Fold these 2 entries.
Entry 1:
Amino acid sequence: MHHAAPLEFKFRFVNKQGQPEGLLRTKGSFDGERLHLGKGVSCPAVAILQSETRNDRLILALASDKPEPGIVVLAATKGVVNDLKARLDVSRSRFWADASRKALQAEGRGHAHRERECPNCSAVLLLTDMPETPQLYCVYCKALTTADGPEQRVETSHMLCDECGLFSAPRKFTIFYFYFLLVVYGYHQRITWRCPGCMRGEAWKMFFGNLLFVLGVPVAIAQLIRAYGSSRVGRYTGLDKANLLARKGDALAALDVYNEISSRVTPCAGIKYNAGMALVEAQDLEQAAEFFEFSLDDCANYAPAYRALIQCYANTGQHEKRLALQRTWGDTSEEQPERRAG
Ligand SMILES: [Zn+2]
Ligand SMILES: [Zn+2]
């Protein structure tokens, strides 16, 4: 298990305002089991409940004795952040899989234990009691792997968007923004004729103009995404458009496009998940539940569809189904949705 040499790195803690603290970087290390951050923080990888990276930041949710998990945010190089996350995920997923296997053995159900390694990040994924499906979801790196005959197709570009929560190809917002600037700037250049110095002042005026425009008018962003999406041809053509329709609550139009994509990309748990979300947006929870079920038929461990389906069952009074599904997932959280509603 301890094949890799310990990872040593330098980092800075990020404060609540999102700014790295201090001028000097602190030393950190991970030996495969424990994470050391400077002199003060040391915790086992298994105490990490969730880990996410965004660019050069690593966000860790740590188990604590309080009801809320402790959040630690680190800033380091992109390479360090990605390497550290991958190592932490392999370590803690291995631990959870072993613990789960032992618990099953104690129940006399050791043979039921089923696990698979994520082909993308090598984290261990638990599949005990879940049906065999063509896709595999990695809750750690968010990759969707599809068995394609003897081949495996690993999808890492598409995942849930931070902003709208739909299966899509999220990019850093600055890219859209930059693209937007290019569109306007390019257009302007074509119709004006002036020296570069004058152009510079104009560009700044446009920059601030765009800034207000982009921040103040969400529709502009929507059009931008549409423009960007339409220029990309591929398996997921139409996805951005469909997601926009879904967000607007136009479930019928969105479903049309999702259907079309589903006919090209089979199986695809993410697309069916989006169709379900479109129906949730349109308040049709019963039909939404069906699509989340389809999503799980494609990928038995697709966590986003699971979470949504549990909510749908709870809110449409399908308690037997909810409990059965929760058992399959080893989810012991009780009656959470009702409690929230009541
Ligand atoms: Zn993975
Ligand atoms: Zn989005």
Note: Residues 78-106 form the longest helix (29 residues).
Entry 2:
Amino acid sequence: MNVSPARLKSAGPDRLGRYYTQDRIGSFLVEQMTGPEPAAVLDLGAGGGSLSLAAMTRWSGAELITVDIDSFSRAKLRERFRDAVVRHSHIRADALRIDLPKLVSSSINSIDAAVCNPPFIIPKWRTEFGHIIEEAGFSSSISTLPDVDAALLFLAQNIRLMSKGGALGIVLPDSLVSSVKYRPFRRDLLARFYVEKAVRLPRNSFAKTDAQAHILVIRKNACSASAVVLQELNEGFEGRELMVSVEQAEDRLDFRYHAQRVAFSSIYRARTRRLSDITQVLTRGCFTSAEVKNSNYPVLHTTDIPEELCGCWCDISSFGKSQPASGSRFAIAEPGDVLVARVGRNLERKVIGVAKGYARLSDCVYKIRVAEAHRELLLKRLGSESGRVWLASQAYGVSAKQLTKSSLLAFPF
Ligand SMILES: C[S@@+](CC[C@H](N)C(=O)[O-])C[C@H]1O[C@@H](n2cnc3c(N)ncnc32)[C@H](O)[C@@H]1O
């Protein structure tokens, strides 16, 4: 089977992360929040008001306070609420100002519920962000600074603004829920707050994006939980639940990851070796996507790996019939190697073996070399249904997913 060069696509994000929540997701988020009817509800980054309206539909007696930096937000909120919300104040401001509690307290004394769908962007670092994070109790997360997701800052700001015992329903990007970078944040969150529930959302939950997001329901009080309820909501809006320990939740707050870990535990228990035990080389290519586009010679990128060839030995000689005379900078795929996509929406379906030919690789492709005796079995296992499920459960990411080298090395072989 032949693999040959394909073309690349790209897309650009909105500067303020204005991807609005679909109404049914807004209602779902509010339904997850337990406890007595709040007196005041806060919505930071309220946008067009999907979450605010859902909250006010449920808690019609509450007072609403919305904040958004976007000058169009006020008119959008007015249009959406018309007469539906009686007591509403809107502040046009940067929600990440250190003095926001002062601004908000001029409208409302105490906030006992908050809803939030923050922008999924990484803002330019300001010193006050460090104070917001620290004051909210996420000081371990500071080691990952200064490129911190706005979502973490919005969460921290909500915590600062809420009164003790207050409930927060917040939409978070997959990175906060799954990535190694944010593990210290999850540790702090689980230790200091009561995480009532984490729900993995379907990809189409927001207008104009298919970002992978989750809802977290958090209560600001002294006692943390000993177990966390995880849920996955499918496209048909049906939910499946499971419970994990706090240590497991610290690893990931993602239903799918843990459900697959449980489902395949008997298969994987029988396999005592890891990929790391048999790997001679596990490396990735050196060409960035931009270099792939501008390169004078063909470079094998994830887009060149057809999903229908997953698990097959392929002829890649259209990229090169012999070993390129290049420096050691280039990871070259050669016969016998197994190639696995490192990045991509369906990376678990992009696993091939090289039967013939040579190729320079983009940095989105891993090359795995094992002894000849293991090659057939490795490709069979990585490309099998259970292998794909395993890869999918390890991959994380808001838009394109990614697979870390350490996760791949942990593949039960
Ligand atoms: C993902 S949208 C969510 C909007 C709305 N809450 C919803 O769920 O549909 C994020 C919102 O945050 C606002 N935003 C972005 N950066 C902000 C900032 N620094 N301060 C306040 N609002 C901000 C955007 O204008 C946008 O309305």
Note: Residues 7-12 have pLDDT under 50 and may be disordered.
